[in-house]
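Q: Entry one of two.
A:
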Amino acid sequence: MEPITIEITTNSDRLDKYVTDYLKQDYDFSRSYVQSLIKQGFIKVNDNLVSSNYNLLIGDIITIDPKSPEELNAIPQDVDFEIVYQDKDIIVVNKPNHLVVHPAIGNPDKTLVNGLLFKIKDLSSIGGYLRPGIVHRLDKDTTGLMIVAKNDKAHKRLTEMLANNEIYKEYLALVHGNVEPNKGKIDAPIGRDKNNRKKMTVTEINSKKAVTNFEVVKRFDKFSLLSCVIETGRTHQIRVHMAFIKHPVLGDHLYAFKEDKNIEFGQFLHSHKLSFDHPVTNERFEFSCELPKEFNDKIVEIEK
């Protein structure tokens, strides 16, 4: 399917409605499917990623890459990751480094979702074609524990639990510098960086509340190992908050220093512990997983 370009000549509807109506005759996509195309970045305005409820203005240029459902459907692939726990409702996985969670532009396959589809017969449908079962995400270079839903009932409840801060999520982060004090709370809203769409930043503009609690686990000469417990789940939250207090995560190619881009491992950030009540049985679960070898090796290196 060839890309489509549209110039808006009069003030118009919100983006998802306009595109649904425009494509109706040739493609007959549902509005919810058009919303999924917008979310995945296949529909842009002025070459920018925008939300489905963006109100179109005179002069706006819409670009549409009208992917069919078949093209967007994630395929089963044998991908290496560990299943820590599984029952009929949920899965807990240990995500390795350099593994993207779900297909998107630039990463069409060989993601965690592709691996889940290869290993698991049933996943919840709420995430759609590209995010079946995905309740929350970890960045590509963040390792550790994630919860996946196997049915819609579990998915809906887990989403509610995340929104209500009912899931305890603790990370280990190796950051630049000696962090003072030993414990602290970063309560600073996070939104999209207006100068770089790939980055998030602490801002009062179009932002959402973000809270990270931290505690120093161990200090080294030029680094600190922190335990970070997040009360909210914003994109890049710990990475943005650590950079905000001038202690960016070591190896963070986006938010740390120029020399960090030379660290192939990426950011030293690990989802270490999860505690929550089972979304269906209410049984209390607690999981933890060890640091990746590369993370441990780096600690040994900087201890010398």
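Q: Entry two of two.
A:
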Amino acid sequence: MTILTKAILVYAHGNVDQMKFEEVSLNKPAAGEVQIQQKAIGLNFIDIYYRTGLYQAPLPHGLGFEGAGIVVAVGEGVSHLKEGDRVAYGQSPLGAYAYVRNVPAKQVVKLPDEISFEEGAAMMLKGLTVQYLFRQTYPLKAGETVLLHAAAGGVGLIACQWAKALGVKLIGTVSSDEKAALAKQMGAWETINYTKENVVERVKELTNGEKLPVVYDGVGKDTFETSLDCLRPRGLLVSYGNASGAVEGVNLGILASKGSLYVTRPTLGTHVNTLEKMQKAADELFTHVLAGDIKILIEQRYPLHDVAQAHRDLAARKTTGATVLTVE
């Protein structure tokens, strides 16, 4: 059976005007899928990458990877979910910007009753990102000091809290004193306002010249060399995003000259590529949220039909914490 719903589609890459809010037909869920009546949708920088074409997908395509809602239909072969379940997901095929959608069931987990749909939509991609960064890519140990860029963003504020829960001293870069105060409030050990301070020199001061074993960089082009210069010999740069544009034209020799450094470019998808891995990562995230170690700070809400303004504000760095798109 086919139903009609509304969704955002992109027919050509470019500015926010390329996002079209349209009525679309949706088939019943195929084998291995569930159909979700969405209650909230997460907004992330990766959505901008796909809209502009920095990340490529065959046109036309939807946008968004993160949402929460209620299962309204279940495809053949799905056993861990049923109609009526409260669910959330943070890694799916493009298309979360929709009222109703089908999602591979292996990417969907039950949402605890104590966590709201908005929190679920705001935390899954960002929270699972922090989980793989801190627990898999470079497993953090209590007492370590690390640097994370954009500490007052959606990923950043979860990271500040998770680091504190692990006994890790997180230094966060921010663009204003207000964002610095927010990051400190949410668990950052120290902050660096890069509009006023030299990040590398401040890191040296905070570490007594030793610098850091790992830097987490979701900004990309603008911070790449700064991140390398904050690392101690044989340190690891985890470059997991491109908020300022892609890192290009890197001469590998720079890693040698700066101290036999390591660089990795991980993605969430390769860390939670099975239901078992997704469930394990989500369970760890939910445990921290339910214990109160991590609070999901939703600072902006936009109706789905106003997604263009949401993208403008996110790109202009006018947002803090998480942003959700609401479904009327």
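A: Comment on entry two: The chain has nine helices and 15 strands. The chain has a mean pLDDT of 95.
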